[in-house]
C-alpha cells in the first residue's frame, strides 16, 4: 500500500486522480479506473545511453499506464534531441547535478535509473529521497550493501521500487512460472541456462570497466541465467558453486569473461548456468519428471521462442518487454497489484552474484545460501 | 596394420580372403573387396543382457561386414533361445568358464564384450589372448589402469581394439566433427552437453552397484557428455572441475546420481556438461564465433536430430548406430581403414572420469589434464 505523503498527495491531486481511497482504508485499487488516460504516470529516464534510446523510450510510446515525462542526462547535446523527439517540457529535463530538484516536479512519478551499475545506488536513493517511485535497471547495484541502501531509502520515503527485470513481464516467462507452479510436466529436476554474447571491438566500454560495472559477464548477462534458474525451478537456490574462464585477457582486462555456476535447490532440483561476454547463449531448458520445456531464445528482446516435450510451440503476442514491465510497475503503484520485480529480487540476485564470485575465489568451493523466499514472486 | 600371427593367418586362409597383402608391404585394404559377402567377420557377443538382446543382435542382422557368429552367456536358458533365433552353431556358444576355448574357434574374429563395466577388462584381455579382435562396450573399464591392461593385451596379441562408442559412427556425429574441423560456424567458443535419464523402480540393477559399474551416472551417461564435449570442440580438455548432487540417496545408495563438470580447452573453448540418473538430458549445443549447431537428441539410438544457426535441419538416413559401428570396426580390421573409436579413446575418457571424481572429492577443485591428442580421431 502506498502511504500518502504531502508530496504524493499533491501529486495525485494535481492529476485529479484522488478518489475514495482517502476516505478510509480502501486500497488504492479502488481509486482508479485504469482506462483513464489521464492517470498515466510520468516516468523520467536517468541516463540516455543505448538502452534508454533504443529500448526504454520507444517502449514508452507503447505503454498504457505511464509515459515519458522527463529525462536526466549528463550529455548536454542529448537534451535538445530528446526534447524535440519526445516533446519533453524544458522543466522536466535534468542533468546529474540538478537532478535532486526533481523533488519539485509533480509530473514525474517514477524515476527509471538506466546508468552504469555503479551509479544505480546513488541515483535510486536520490530519486527515493525526492519522493519518486524507482525502477532500477539490472543488475540492481554492485554489491548487496548497495541493494540494501536502495531498499531502505525507498522504504523510508514510502516509494515503490522495482528492478528492470523486463523478462518478468514477458508472457513466456509467465508461462514458465505457470508450468513450474502447476507441475504441468511434473517435478522440476534439472535446469540448464545460458546467457551470453560475444563482445568485441570496444574494450573501453563501461561494461568492461569494473569500477563502473562491478563485474563482467556475470553482472550483465549472468543475472538473466540466475533469474531463469530460479523461475525455472520456482525456488531460491540453497547453494552455488562456480568457475571462471579467461581466454581473451587482452580484451577482458578488468572483468570476468565466462563463468559457469551450479545451483542446488531445496526441492531437489539442480541447475547449471553459463554466462559469457565471449560466447553466445540464450536458452533455458527445464527437465521435469514427466517432460521438459525450453525457451530459446530465452531472454532477448523478443520474440522469445518456446517449445515443450509434448510438441507444443509456445506462442504469445509480442510486445516490447520494457513496455510491459513499466506498465506492470505502474499498475502496482496505481492499483496495489503485485510488484513482480521488487527490490528484494534484485538484492537476492546480488547475494547470488557475490556468492558466485566468492566460490570462484575459493577454487570452486560450494557456497551455502540462506535466501528463504527472498525475492521469489509466484 | 594387422600383424599376422599363426592364428590370424589360418583364420583368414580359412575364409579364403588372403590376397596380395602377404606378398609385400601392401596394406590389407588391397587384399579385400568389401562387397564379397564371404568376407564378413564373425562376432561373438559376450553378455546377453538388454543391450545385446535389443541393440547388438538386431544390428548384426543389418551389418555388411560382420555377422553374429557366436554367443557367450552365463545364463544357461539363453543359449537355446539365441541358438534358435539366430541360428548359432552349438560349437560357437560359450559360457564364462569355457570362454577361453574360443581361441580354437576360427569362425569368431571379433569378441564384443557387453558385460557390466567391472567385467570388461577380464573378458577383453581373455579375448585378446585368444587372438580375437575386441570391441569393449563403454565405459571401457572401471579404471585407467584397467584400460591400460586391455590396450596392452591387445597390442601384445596383435589384435585390434575398439570401444563401443556407437555415436562415433553416427552420421550426425560425423557432421559435427566436420563443422568443427572446417570451422563452418567459425571457432568453437562454448559447448553445452547433457546426458541423463531418470532411473527408478530398480535400485538393485548392476548400474547402481558400484562393484559392478565402477560408478553411477558419470560412468554410464556421463561418458556421452564427455565425448560430445570433445568432438564438439575437436580437442581434448586441458582441465576439468566437477560437482556432485544427491537428492535421492535412498535409491542411489552406492553410485553418483547427478554430476556437472566444466572443461577448459587449449583453443580457448569452454564446455560444461551434466549427467544424471535422476534427470533427462540428451543434447549437444555448440556455440561458435559465427553461429551455432545443436543435436537434440544427441546420443540416443536415433534418429538423432540436428539444427544449425542458419536454419538448416540436419537430416541423414537412419541406420542402427551399432550396425554402423560394428561395420566400421570390421572395415578397420579388413582394410586398415581408420579405427574411429580406438582403445586410447576409451582410456582418455576414463582419465577424465577419474579426474571428475577427484575434483568432486576435492570440493570442485580444478584438475589439470595432460592428454595431448590421446584418443582424438579427426
Automatic annotation (TrEMBL), chains A, B:
Lineage: Bacteria, Pseudomonadati, Bacteroidota, Flavobacteriia, Flavobacteriales
GO terms of molecular function: nucleotide binding
Taxonomic superkingdom: Bacteria
PROSITE patterns, per the entry: TAT
Source organism (scientific name): Maribacter stanieri
Alphabetized Gene3D superfamilies for the sequence: Dihydrodipicolinate Reductase, domain 2, NAD(P)-binding Rossmann-like Domain
Secretion signal, residue range per the UniProt entry: 1-31
PANTHER family: D-GLUCOSIDE 3-DEHYDROGENASE, UDP-N-ACETYL-2-AMINO-2-DEOXY-D-GLUCURONATE OXIDASE
Keyword Ribosomal protein: no
Keywords, in A-Z order: Signal
Domain Gfo/Idh/MocA-like oxidoreductase N-terminal residue range list: 42-165
Location of the GFO/IDH/MocA-like oxidoreductase domain: 174-293
SUPFAM superfamilies: Glyceraldehyde-3-phosphate dehydrogenase-like, C-terminal domain (SSF55347), NAD(P)-binding Rossmann-fold domains (SSF51735)
Spans through the membrane: none
Protein name: Glucose-fructose oxidoreductase
InterPro entries linked to this entry: Gfo/Idh/MocA-like_OxRdtase_N, Gfo/Idh/MocA_Oxidoreductase, GFO_IDH_MocA-like_dom, Glc-Fru_OxRdtase_bac, NAD(P)-bd_dom_sf, TAT_signal
